[in-house]
Amino acid sequence: MTKPPLPERLAPVVFVVSVGALGIVYGTVSSWWGWFPAPQIGMAHRTYLDISSNWRNDMGLEPTRHLVAPDDGDSGEADPDRGYEVFQPDRIQPGYTLVAGLNNDPDGTFHVVRLFDASGEEVHHWPIRYDELDGEIRPQNTMLHGMEVFEDGSIAVTFDSGQALARLDSCGEPIWSNTGGYHHTLTRDGAGNMLTWREEIIVWVDEETGEEVHTLDLRRDIARGDDRAQQGYLDIRTITPESPEQKVRYGVDPFHPNDAEPLREEMADAFPMFEAGDIMLSLRELNLVTVVDPESGRMKWWQHGPWFKQHDPDFQPDGTITVYDNNTGTMRSRILKIDPESGEVTELYAGTEDQPFYSWRRGKHQILPNGNLLLTEAEHGRLLEVDPERQPVWERHMKWDAESNVIVTEARYIPEDFFTNGVPSCSNEVSDAGNGAPG
């Protein structure tokens, strides 16, 4: 039998190789441009990883979504005796520290806010019963994030991956509560309202009633890409393409708004370019900090970086703005200070080899009355106060067990004379708090 000519024998091989090459090319291009089936494959892969890592959390067995490894420097091993340690007792800022996080008592509520005095002792706690605020999402699948405290001892809270915004009395009982996609930070404006985010909408909420009294839509009111850009508006969605022919593309969360802070009346004179009530926003995915008019959404000032994936920009009394620069991927977070008039940026703190400081996401900072910095290293479950010379004053690991810390979304300084009737108290404090604070 005569064999077919060589080209005919090679045809199936050439066909298979061609199909394979086309598949590789299409796979590369589809992954780059987000064509089918790259998004679906990516989603399936992320879902698989999430379920395999956190099934114990979702079944209520262990709160794996809330636990992180402590950062113990170069040793690579967690110190089982870590907890609260004081380095300079004479430099501690007098007052209280409010801490949002997870309860380590199996008989208590899942979330809790704790109040520590200047000696490091817990003097009060607020049990947070998320299941009483929202019947749709289980508490272990939410993250207590935003919090505000009031002079009467009540607090307000919001949750990531949850829906609730609520004000609770000193025993954790609801005064009022809302549901509807609230998330991230809460900030009082000094005029009877709190600001927070609901999806991509900035919301002003009446402190006493929980009623929404004003809103500002990020996409509709601020990120407008039309001819009004010539009048002071900026299309903040624009990402510089690699060529003029490329279109701007967005992911599921192109902005990731994570803060909305009002310029309060008592600080407005330090910022002549702004007015009392203007709102400073942090849009993480754009590395953007901006100040906008609360009525029109007009951007009065903005800057991209040098921070990367930042959180918690704050107005300061000296007319500067400080930013928690997560600096994601570098293993070195920073606190930066910027002069909005000159654009000059200086570094206030970045940790050291002996005292590392890094949170790849989340995180808060606060400049205290004595000049110290209060830092929330969220993704290592650690709180830290440092002096102006960048030396540690005290640190607290929010310990869960020998190997894990609890994610801490925020620590907040409270002056000694803040509470109208002294330190808050509640009759069921012992039964809810169990053995006190983690660590």
UniProtKB/TrEMBL annotation:
This is Arylsulfotransferase (ASST). The chain crosses the membrane at residues 12-35. PANTHER family: ASST-DOMAIN-CONTAINING PROTEIN (PTHR35340:SF5), PQQ ENZYME REPEAT PROTEIN-RELATED (PTHR35340). The lineage of its organism: Bacteria, Pseudomonadati, Pseudomonadota, Alphaproteobacteria, Rhodobacterales. InterPro entries: Arylsulfate_ST (IPR053143), ASST-like (IPR039535). Signal peptide: none annotated. It comes from Roseovarius pacificus. Keywords: Membrane, Transferase, Transmembrane, Transmembrane helix. One of its GO terms (molecular function) is transferase activity.
